[in-house]
Every structure is written in C-alpha cells, then in structure tokens.
Design goal:
2 domains; about 20% helix; about 30% strand
Length: about 200
C-alpha cells in the first residue's frame, strides 16, 4: 500500500510534489522579490492606515542574501528621499517598521518650525513638504541640527504627532532596509500606489 501511495504518477504523490514546489517558489519570491506587510499602527497616517495591507518591493534596492548580515544582490534603483521604506527596527531585530526616508549618511538634518532642512536647505520633496514635523526628544530638537552617521539613513513617520521614529531612537543601518512600500492591496477601497 505504501508503495502505491508514493508510486510515480500517483495522485497523492503529485499533490504533495505540487505543494512542495509551490512552497519553495513562494519562499523564493518572498526572499528576493516582494513581501506582504500589514500596518499595525497609525504612525504613517494619512498615507497608510492601521490594517492596510501592502506589498513591499525588495528587488528595487537589491534583495538581501538570506543568512547574511549585509550582503545584497544588485537592485535597479537606489533609495530616494521621500520613499516609504520597510526596515528591521534597530532596537528590536524581531520587528519590522515602516517610515518615510528623510536623509542619508553625511547629511545634516534640522527640524525647524515644522519643516525639514537638509544641509541648510528646505526639503522640497512633496511627500515631505506636506507634513508638519514636530521636534524630537533626542534627535531633531528645535535649533539642534544633527548629522546622519555613515552607513545609516534617517526616517520619520508621516503622523509626526504620534510616531516612534528617528526623532526618538535615531538612525537605521542601511543593511536593515528590506524594501520600498509600493502598493496598498487591501482593503479594496484603499487600493493604490504609495506616494
């Protein structure tokens, strides 16, 4: 009976092989191309709402090589100021966060009267300019510019009044970036590309 079950061409064997192949393919796609995420909080309102489900493009910046700390395959674009990115939270590697990329390594950042200044000039990206940013507790105090360290980026939430972001805990190592948030796919009434 056991031999009949596993015999080549048997329905049970074909069914199990299909499941195994589908699982391997899904893990490959998740590791290198796209990954689904669910928004847990309101820190990115109004861009993203609690329980929005979205797709994150890992291929854009170059997917991380599994089982390595900082190795990446080549991507087809570099992160840009204003991108909404998903990253491994620096203070707790078991959690992923989503925020807007504000500044890159070596840049001086200042939050003054609700506006972001990069190297003394107002950030002109529409996605950043439309938000009133409150001053931070550790980074971004009024009148206290700071410099983003080498190998890091600085991120902020769009809901500046209610966001645990770079103003509180600092900087994101570049290797922690998972990918760019591209598309809200659920709920259907909110389906759209993310700006």
């Amino acid at each position: 009976m056991k031999n009949k079950f596993w015999k080549k061409g048997s329905p049970a064997r074909e069914w199990i092989e299909s499941i195994v192949i589908a699982f391997i393919l899904a893990m490959f796609i998740r590791a290198f191309f796209i990954q689904a995420f669910k928004i847990p909080s309101g820190s990115m309102k109004p861009t993203l709402l609690e329980r929005d489900r979205l797709m994150v493009n890992k291929l854009r910046y170059g997917p991380k090589v599994p089982f390595t700390k900082d190795k990446r395959l080549p991507g087809f674009a570099k992160p840009k100021r204003g991108d909404v990115i998903v990253f491994i939270y620096p203070s707790d590697p078991s959690r992923d966060f989503i925020k807007r990329l504000i500044a890159f390594e070596g840049e001086e950042v200042e939050i003054r009267e609700g506006h972001i200044y990069i190297d003394g000039l107002t950030a002109e990206e529409p996605s950043i300019k439309k938000v009133f940013y409150y001053n931070g507790t550790q980074y971004g105090r009024e009148g206290e510019p700071f410099r983003v360290p080498e190998g890091h980026v600085f991120v902020l939430g769009d809901n500046s009044a209610s966001s645990s972001d770079g103003r509180v805990w600092g900087f994101v190592p570049y290797e922690n970036i998972i990918g760019r948030a591209e598309f809200i796919y659920w709920p259907l009434t909110r389906m759209r590309f993310i700006q």
